Amino acid sequence: MKKALITGGAGFIGSHLAELLINNGYGVVVVDNLASGRTANLSSILSHPDFTFIEADICDLDALKPAFDGVDWVFHLAGMADIVPSIEQPSHYYNVNATGTLNVLECARSVGVSRFVYAASSSSYGIPEVYPTPETSPIQPQYPYALTKYMGEEMVLHWSQVYGLPAVSLRLFNVFGPRSRTAGAYGAVFGVFLAQKLNGSPYTVVGDGTQTRDFTYVTDVANAFFMAAASDVSGEAMNVGSGDHYSVNKLVELLGGEVVYIPKRPGEPDCTFGDTAKIERLLDWRAKVPFEDGVAMMFKYIDNWKDAPVWDPKSIEKATDVWFHYLGDENKQ
After folding, report:
1. Binning pLDDT at 50, 70 and 90, where does residue 329 land?
2. Among the CATH numbers 3.20.20.80, 3.90.25.10, 3.30.470.30, 3.30.390.10, which is that of 176-214+243-272+290-331?
3. What CATH number matches the domain at 3-174+216-240, 3.40.190.10, 3.40.630.30, 3.40.50.720, 3.30.450.40?
4. Which of 26, 228, 265, 327 sits in a 20 to 30 Å window from 42, CA-based?
């Protein structure tokens, strides 16, 4: 039996990947500090004999090392997300997303793992010049989160080049689905909208809502990680996207409800749309869940957002003040 380790495995994507691996006969070790992940996300496999949970922080090298004993595959998904906190706490984001990645790489290298797959971010493209955006597009991060995630990717690919670590990096676009975070900083549109719907509040749509996002369902993304590990591809970065893009107005139409509009934010692209030709060619991977079906499935889990913060224009303005201040105050209205 192959043994896989998932950092951040109690989180949104990591928990779906853990289930996929267990269901395919792999032993799974999840390492998570539970800062944003939850053991409840792993409830379906917590008691499985081939599953192990270790509460540890990737920044604590001594606590991390024992988790790698006998590990064949490593999936590195642990990290700090969100834009505003990264602007406020750049050192913390560097420590987790860059130094933490270094720790995971060195632990993986020390035990000679056969595969290493990194969760990178499409935010590293910044405001792209080409759509759909290929992997050859310029890297131009707009804030510390995007920068530190890209620094992690650079280390992963460098370790592949220098040390022969069989590693790949997956640049994720806008992943959505059950178990996405319901608390914390103002962020992902699905969490914001679902909490608003439960509360009977209007959706806070940024700008005029015509901006589009490459919404990709979480089970498709988990499958991309699995297929990347099962392949012999190494030293490559690949986009993971839906193969299409959808407007925020379309999402609101599917969810149903009233809308209020808030100012457009600096440093955000009008479109995210990944060119997936490379991953289709190298891994024969394609997203399978249509956007409309994914949104419909989210309704089944909407009660997960009953305790989530309900954002309104005033609270969003306060939460994003730092965003406007550092990324272009002239855009604030």
Report:
1. low
2. 3.90.25.10
3. 3.40.50.720
4. 228
Closest CA to 297 of 179, 198, 214: 179
The per-residue pLDDT for range 116-159, each reduced to its tens digit, is 999 999 999 999 999 999 999 999 999 999 999 999 999 999 99
Residues 6 or more apart whose Cβ sits within 8 Å of residue 3? 26, 27, 28, 29, 70, 71, 72, 73
Q: Which long-range contacts (CB under 8 A, 24 or more apart) does 89-93 make?
A: 90/144, 93/144, 93/145, 93/148
One-letter amino acid identity for 4?
Answer: A
Q: What is the Cα Rg of the chain in Å?
A: 19
184 pLDDT band, cuts 50/70/90, is low
Calpha distance 72→74 (Å, rounded): 7
Cβ–Cβ < 8 Å for 216, 175: yes
Q: How many residues does the chain have?
A: 333
CA distance 315 to 52: 40
Q: In 3D, which of 151, 145, 154, 11 has the Cα closest to residue 75?
A: 11
Catalytically annotated residue among 125, 145, 186, 246: 145
The span from the CA of 191 to the CA of 301, in Å, is 11
The answer to whether residue 145 is catalytic is: yes
